[in-house]
Amino acid sequence: MKKFSKTILMLGGIVLALAVAPMASYAQSKVEEVKNVNVINTPSVNVANIPNVNVTNTPKVRNANDLNIFQESRGTFTNDDLEVFSYLVPLGKRLVIEFASINATIGRGEKLRALIRGGNGLTDADHAIVMSFQVPVAGQDIFVGAQQMRMYAEPGTTVTILVNRRDAADTGIVSANAFIQTSISGYLVDVP
After folding, report:
1. Which residues contact 105 (CB under 8 A, 6 or more apart)?
2. Which of 28, 45, 68, 145 fits a disulfide with 131 by CB distance 3.0 to 4.6 angstroms?
3. What DSSP letter does each residue of 3-55 carry, written as one string?
4. Of the candidates 190, 105, 99, 119, the residue with the CA atom closest to the CA atom of residue 160
């Protein structure tokens, strides 16, 4: 009988433990209430007076009717290394260049270096455009270069694409009838 009462007692303890365990775990996993947090001493920002900031976070879609879109392309036949492209930024506007490209057909074996230059009137920023060989055609080599960027040119300054080419032997004599075409794309921003 002693054995039987120990078994009953042990079985009762297990049932009691199983009955209390869910309540204990419920009490421990109870989610605390959300409390408000106050942040103090933060600077105030007036977004309305910052130029070119869209407060609604809605992107401006540019289309063919937008007068601020800027795209220009020029081609030049050349016998030298050459400034191929030059654009004077109008007064009252800032030119934001987002993309520049060059397509060049030059003499077989010649080397090519290209950069776009723009600035703020005091100093110029030069951005290299990496040129890649494509194919040889009729005794000439075709190179292309394209560069996505964000470059700013201030009112009254000049944006220039410079292309330097040298012959393979570096004698300074380059082939005749090279053709270089350059393009830049971006937009103009009103500057107060």
Report:
1. 137, 140, 141, 142, 178, 179, 180
2. 145
3. HHHHHHHHHHHHHHHHHHHHHHHHHHTPPPPP------SPPP--GGGSTT--T
4. 119
* Residue 65, amino acid: N
Q: Please give the model's pTM, rounded to 2 decimal places.
A: 0.60
Q: Where are the alpha helices (DSSP H) in the chain?
A: 2-28
Q: Identify each DSSP E strand in 67-173 by its residue range.
A: 69-78, 82-88, 93-107, 111-119, 124-129, 131-137, 140-153, 158-166
Separation between Cα atoms, residue 110 and residue 130, nearest integer Å: 15
Assigned CATH for 69-190: 2.60.120
Would the CA dihedral through 27, 31, 33, 37 be positive or negative?
A: positive
Instruction: List the 131-137 sheet strands across, edge first.
Output: 69-78, 178-190, 93-107, 140-153, 131-137
**16 vs 12, 30, 91, CA distance in Å?**
6, 22, 87
Query: What is the Cα–Cα distance from 35 to 169, expressed in whole angstroms?
Result: 76
Closest CA to 113 of 97, 127, 131: 131
Question: For the purposes of burial, counting CB atoms within 10 Å of the CB of 131, is it exposed (0-12), middle (13-18) or buried (19 or more)?
Answer: buried
Q: What is the pLDDT of residues 159-184, one digit of tens each?
A: 999 888 888 787 877 877 788 888 99
